Amino acid sequence: MAWVMLGVAGLLEVVWTYFMKQSDGFTRMTPSAITILTMIASFSLLSMSMKTLPLGTAYTVWTGIGAVGAFLVGIIVLGEEVSPLRVLAASLIVSGLVIMKFSAAS
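-> structure tokens emitted (106 positions)
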């Protein structure tokens, strides 16, 4: 269950980073509110997953999901640049997440 909570926390991190971008520096009310609510939910789920998962594993996986997810949202939704070097960097992050998952005892 901790891995499920951690996965959802990571996905919520992608949501709040997207809406933070949409909030235009917290000057737009609805995206700002969504940012704050999903941030609280993401941190809460991360915290709950840390009851059984090691700190380093949980935090690394959470930030990795957020980083790669934000990278994909930037490309797919916001039309950001796709370059071989950026794709390689994201691939290395995903590789690290897979290794971290398999190295975890829980």
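The radius of gyration is 15 Å.
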